[in-house]
Amino acid sequence: MRVTNAVLPGRSEPVTIVTEGGRITAIKESPGVGAPGEEVIDAAGRTVLPGLVNAHAHIDKTLHGGPWVSAPQVETVAERVAHERRHRDTHGLPSREYVASLVEAMVVAGTTHLRTHTDVDPGVGLRGITAVAEVARRYEGVIDIQQVAFPQGGLITNPGTLPLLRDAVEAGASVIGGLDPAGFDDAPNAHLEAVFDLAASTGTGIDIHLHDGGSLGAWEMGLIARMTREYDLGGRVAVSHAFGIAHPPTQAALLERFAEAGVALVSAAVYDAPVPPLRACAEHGVLLAGGTDGINDLWGPFGDGDMLRRAMLIAYRNSSRSDDELMLALDAVTTNAARVLGIEDHGLTVGGPADLVVVDARSAAEAVARVPGRDLVIRSGRVVARDGALVGAEGGNAPPH
Amino acid sequence: MRVTNAVLPGRSEPVTIVTEGGRITAIKESPGVGAPGEEVIDAAGRTVLPGLVNAHAHIDKTLHGGPWVSAPQVETVAERVAHERRHRDTHGLPSREYVASLVEAMVVAGTTHLRTHTDVDPGVGLRGITAVAEVARRYEGVIDIQQVAFPQGGLITNPGTLPLLRDAVEAGASVIGGLDPAGFDDAPNAHLEAVFDLAASTGTGIDIHLHDGGSLGAWEMGLIARMTREYDLGGRVAVSHAFGIAHPPTQAALLERFAEAGVALVSAAVYDAPVPPLRACAEHGVLLAGGTDGINDLWGPFGDGDMLRRAMLIAYRNSSRSDDELMLALDAVTTNAARVLGIEDHGLTVGGPADLVVVDARSAAEAVARVPGRDLVIRSGRVVARDGALVGAEGGNAPPH
Fold first, then answer.
1. Among residues A24, A63, A382, B56, which is most buried (max CB within 10 A)?
2. Which one, of A130, A177, A122, lies nearest residue A149 by Cα?
């Protein structure tokens, strides 16, 4: 494949991208001559972004494509968890149909890689894990889906959960989750030791939900940094939400500790909660990745799976205004998020994957600020979506139904 | 016109809306039989919203439809004002072309009424006022545009401005603006007295930009409430942004004073700044209206003019999750915003204006949460936009170019 007249992030002149075998083999100024039969796409001066990466979702919970269900107006994480526990069966959750509907929405919006936190508890068992794994297989080659075994109902306070997390790893989860070790589970040391022990013994990563804010959240993050060094898991640990990072007295010190320990931050810029600082994270060398959080589920009605729109929200909540600042938000939903998922070669470089998203914008900064539609989504050198709809491929590796 | 199978906010069964002479003449359960030649639109179970109202924009500043310009990454209102003063001429601002481009984007997104704050100062004079007035005339009958004569460069600190505000009223502005009487102009009493005197003597309304937050903003709002009573301008005064309303020690008392005095709040849920509380405003009887603020201008690169998306953001920043809470955000961009603009009969009722927006959602709450495209925009009983594009009318009152 040859994509001509493409404006890439950080370059002012349009280029031609040549792909072969699912990789980018050349990026050059002249369009050149394609091989006989080679597919040529004229980007016509539009911007080409790398594949978008969603570092935090909950696709197992979604009602996407299903009936409209009003969410409860409750204040705490514990109340939302309880509401979901009471009502998930009524709505047939987890539902392979809804999960697939949401995954398709993500693909047509340009998402090529996804980390999703799947509920694991004695009530739902591994049903979420197996449902998501089945949908993931169906969309293999179109979107890579990584599962976090997520103790949404608590770990120490919900004793049957820990052995299920180990089973979830055997069933394909590659990351161990956690949930407010202090604020929800009331046992921060025991909670984190259980998570770190399991990750160390199974060779998986760690991604902890931390809604705890202020000095409590900041203290827990310090503990996570310390344990990451002690367990030698640098580069494999993320803190999601991380509202406590906004706690001014400790922010700079925490970012330094995260940089030293190799702990990443993941934010979906949710609701009115604090958003980690793009500029300060970049300056400290802390990876800040973007996600969507839950989409249209029993926790809340919002969301569409669009990571470019989420980059806009992360930038907006950061009061990012200049083009340079907007590019930090793009990094959060591309390169940074990929690294959090353990992918080191993401991005538009020769030798990198041929994952391209064509948008009607004159620059990547404009794309973040204005959130144009996705004209074309190319995965591994193959068009998988066009103008908001999946494209069936001719080559036998067709997107699935 | 007859719109059948329409789901209206707050009703569970689809209805038929009959319009005549630009007004709604009937809302009934059976589709009935139209008059010969009557236009019939099948909403097919989709949701019909009232015309969307944008209570706060700055269309005179916009670069919409023009070249991409990086905004400065500066921290204060004063720095942004200074940057704009230095660069607006270079970019040909105010530009009728850009203003018209933005107005069209607003119309296709379902906006039927707009209040826009137009810069007035000795540098730009009345050029913004006349440019916006000209564009407003071009789109008459499609969108109603109300201008605020806005002292963006200061009032007391910028002595030539006050007489120009009076000239702006003669040139068609119907509201007097103000800007951080304390934080920007350093003369809160003199600033507000000038604004209130001018409004009282010209029979115009008042809409004050108040970025000042915390106890300073709260104090200024108390002063505005007191002056609204003293000048007997209840129902004609709004405070825009109103970041200080989030100041917890005084919030409830201020909302009571605003309710008593007849002062409204306008929010665009900008950046990371505080958003006034939807539920508390409704409970206190204070009108909270939504706006977009500036769109793609020298202050910042964001925005698309879509008031339904802005309702979503206002709801999201309010942590609104239930259908009931989402409806408060819809009120903010319809009925409440209309009342702030002095329009009392807005909304889908018999006798009201035939301003209808058809969206692909099963309920108004879903429309706020998911922000579907605008399938049809009907103004005064005439289709003015369809699927994101303006529609030329056959009847001689065509949308303008």
1. B56
2. A177
